[in-house]
Amino acid sequence: MKTLSAVEPMPAGAGRGRRAQAFTLSEMMIAVFIFVFMVLGIIYVWLFGLRYDELSNSKLGASDLSRRGFDVLTGDIRAAKWWKVGSGANNGTILTFTACINATNQVGNAIQLSSSGQTNSPAYVIYCFDTNACNLYRMSNGAPTIQIIAQSLTNSGILGNGPTNTSMTFHAEQYNGNLAQDWQYKYTIVTTMEFKQYQYPLTHVGPGYYYNYYRIQLKAASHCPN
Fold first, then answer.
1. How many CB atoms lie within 10 A of CB 70?
2. pTM
3. pLDDT tens-digit readout, 11-50
4. What gap in Å lies between CA 213 and CA 207, rounded to an integer?
């Protein structure tokens, strides 16, 4: 014969007590602490990605701008049958040019190029570094409109070469690296540009910034010398 065992009744409110259990204060503080650190980590990674993307875009923009400018300059040098290095200036409407005399170092802030075989030909192109505006300008006598080929340049000597900085100049160079001193038109034309800031987006360059310096040097020679 089966017997029923006595079951003690549950205390009043015990079921509700178990259902109402939650985190303790210390558990809640630890959970909030971990959550805050996770959020801070995500924000830091996001900001790092934005900064890296901005710096990459600025370098790409500067390289693209410099490449386009150097492509034009390289094409003019290679097509030139004669050239003259000298000093130039931008007077607001045209670029003025004065050539270095023969038997002196062919160094200056400007260069005149011509695809004509005659040295007195009126067809020419002038490139001129403006050390005040920190730009490289180009002007063709066929279309006397001054173009900006490169901007945000520097020749302060703080960047790159130091006291012997040759940025924002043109010079004719012999095969052994020495400066040319005559007008044979068979030498290499060398120019160096150092930028003080990138473009698109704007990023400063120099001591104390992300990049110490940004320098591009071009060496090109005429493909059709006299």
1. 19
2. 0.66
3. 555 555 555 566 788 888 888 889 999 999 999 888 888 7
4. 8
